[in-house]
Amino acid sequence: MLHHLSFGVADLVRATTFYDAVLSALGYQRVWTDDDAIGYGLSGGGDLFCLKLRGANAKAPGDGFHLAFAAPSPAAVVQFHAVALLHGGIDNGSPGLRLDYGDDYFAAFVIDPDGHHIEAVWSNRCTC
Fold this sequence. Notes:
Blueprint lengths: L4 E5 L2 H13 L4 E5 L3 E5 L7 E5 L13 E4 L3 H13 L3 E8 L8 E6 L5 E6 L6
Parallel strand pairs: 1-4, 5-8
Antiparallel strand pairs: 2-3, 3-4, 6-7, 7-8
């Protein structure tokens, strides 16, 4: 259903450092870069997620919004969480099974340096 999603960020260098690390843990990479934006996706593909420099106007969406990135394995979810914390993320739910969402739903939750709520999730239903 979705083609891509963008986050406005206050500091593109800080956000890029964070997302280069956490998305690499999930098998994603930078697919393009310019002075005001960075696009991430799968190797050889277009961007599915973009960071856009918005300076002081950058604001994370309010309560109820989060973005879940598909992970290739539970180990990748664990790595995503650890790397996020090392690069300025705030723990919002350590890696583990979330039985409320399914018997194989393994996820971790963090808040990025701009206040965006993000998740890495693996389940047998993921197609990543």
